[in-house]
């Protein structure tokens, strides 16, 4: 990429979204057949290869989406005012979210309720009950999914955008080619990542908690939009890649051999 392309369309980010979305589709298909709780389950479950795929993909798919969103936010604010940015967020995230909440989600909640023997009757009979309480968990009592059920990513990203735009506007003039201070970055953001890991059980969505996603979103904005940090990542790719492979093998071996530790315990933090 040349210097001028940094403020133009990032085709590499588009391809990352496309590839990860492909694995996300397969991930949601696997949820029907693995042992994890799900809205609708198959009669026969698989605790081997489908279970393994689910664990592997859930470990990284949503963090990648939030990191890419952080990078995209950096470039979007280089060209727009805060007002224009938030207006665009409402149109591109808010409208699809509203469509999902009121059109796509009610039939999904209905199928879950029927599958969990929580409702009997036709869809049209269930629709008036869609607004009975807030939907908070699979098998819960509330029906109204204000976050769009599987569109929760749009809901969370919209919240992050409005919450962090004052901070981002202050940093809007940052040059993506400026020197990257790795030590300063680690001091400021590494504690947030650790806190996010400790609080992973709070509002856990897609395998990770909201605080963890917030840390990854900030990483994308402040680090992965910086050319010097990208060069640093490329230079250390062999070492970090090796660590990733080893840690992934340990993660999968632990999961398959001993199961997932209970939240709030020391093993769960290490896990």
Give a written overview of the molecule.
This protein has 271 residues and is mostly helical. It has one domain. 63% of the residues lie in helices and 0% in strands. The protein is built from 11 helices and no strands. The longest helix is centred in the middle third of the chain and has 34 residues.
Structure at a glance:
The chain has eleven helices and no strands. With 271 residues, the protein is mainly alpha-helical.
Shape: globular
Please give the radius of gyration in angstroms: 20 Å
Number of structurally distinct domains: 1
Kindly state the number of beta strands: 0
Termini, distance in Å? Answer: 37 Å
Order of helices and strands: HHHHHHHHHHH
Overall average pLDDT = 87
Helix content: 55-70%
Number of distinct helices: 11
**Low-pLDDT residue spans:** 1-6
Which structural category fits the helices and strands? mainly alpha
Strand content: under 5%
Biggest sheet, open or closed, and with what strands and sense? none
Set down the secondary structure blueprint:
Blueprint: H1 11-30, H2 49-58, H3 61-79, H4 82-115, H5 123-126, H6 152-170, H7 182-198, H8 210-222, H9 227-235, H10 237-258, H11 266-270
Helix pairs in contact: 1-2, 1-3, 3-6, 3-8, 4-6, 7-8
Question: What descriptors fit this protein?
Answer:
globular; mainly alpha; 271 residues; single chain
